[in-house]
Each structure stands twice: as C-alpha cells, then as structure tokens.
Input
Amino acid sequence: MTAFADLRAYLERVAELGELRTVPGAGTSTDIGPLTEITAWSPEHPMLLFDDIPGFPRGWR
Output
C-alpha cells in the first residue's frame, strides 16, 4: 500500500491516473448527492472533487 504525505499528494496521484473528475458549481442540496450516487454505480466510478460550491468561498472543497 502506498503512503501519501497528505490529501493533496493523494489527489495528485489520482489525477495522474486519470481517475479524478472535478465538478464545479454543484449545489449541496440538489447536485452532490445524486452525482455521487450515480458515479458510485457507474462502471468507471471515478473520484469526484466538488469545487466552487454555491454558498461557500471559492476554493473550499
């Protein structure tokens, strides 16, 4: 098992493998739950990183 220095290092590695999908502008009450559920059951099931979430400061993830 590979150890990572921090979450950023882990996210960088997942991105290098092509398994990270950044989702900008998804709402907490309408989008994040359904997108997570759909992705969990998809054959590829990439990691989702929600960014620019309405109601939160830019860059808050």
Observations:
- Residues 22-61 form one domain.
- The CA atoms of residues 18 and 24 lie 17 Å apart.
- The chain has two helices and two strands.
